[in-house]
Write a structure and sequence with these properties.
CATH class: Alpha Beta
Radius of gyration: 16 Å
CATH topology: Alpha-D-Glucose-1,6-Bisphosphate, Chain A, domain 4
CATH superfamily: START domain
Number of helices: 5
Number of domains: 1
Structural class: alpha+beta
Helix content: 25-40%
Oligomer: single chain
Number of strands: 7
Length: 176
């Protein structure tokens, strides 16, 4: 399957986990930058200190784009420790309502796509409005389906706590 197929499949979307977020004090540009600059376990843990264990790029992003980059992460979802291989995909291939989107695929050991998800977002007067969508296949374990909403909410709520400072230090200071 291609990432797009997960979002067009009626059965997967009927059971999807969809979370809306209002993130104050950040911009879409900060979020766009974040996807290609997680970089290491220490930074990954900023995003979710309790659930995130480790992060490394298997295929790092290029200076021009994070599309095609592959990461290997260890994290807790619903109390279960999971090791996940995630590839950033071209968001133009997946329908989205908001002006910015990250599309990702979960890969098996052979590099085949077994799941996809997206975070789409746009500028608002207070910061960013984001919607995270996780289509659920019939074989999705119950613990994952139940744990995803909390994990996702906790991750996204953390972005305003560290991303403005990090973006200022690494991007804006370079422009001065």
């Amino acid at each position: 399957m291609k990432p797009r197929d997960f979002f067009l499949n009626k059965e997967f979307m009927e059971n999807a986990v969809i979370e809306d977020h209002e993130l104050k004090g950040i911009t879409p540009e900060m979020v766009d930058w974040w996807w290609g600059h997680i970089d290491n376990s220490e930074r990954y843990k900023l995003w979710h200190p309790k659930d995130h264990v480790s992060f490394r790029w298997l295929v790092p992003p290029t200076p021009q784009s994070y599309i095609g980059a592959i990461q290997l992460v260890e994290e807790y979802i619903g109390g279960q420790l999971v090791t996940v291989r995630i590839r950033w995909e071209d968001p133009r291939d997946v329908p989205a309502e908001y002006s910015h989107a990250l599309v990702a695929s979960i890969l098996d050991d052979k590099g085949e796509i077994i799941r996809s998800f997206k975070h789409e977002y746009e500028k608002t007067p207070y910061g960013v409005r984001m919607r995270s969508t996780f289509p659920l296949t019939p074989d999705t374990p119950k613990w994952r389906a139940q744990g995803l909403p909390t994990h996702n909410r906790e991750e996204m709520q953390r972005l305003p706590e560290f991303l403005p400072r990090l973006y200022r230090e690494e991007v804006l200071s370079q422009r001065e």
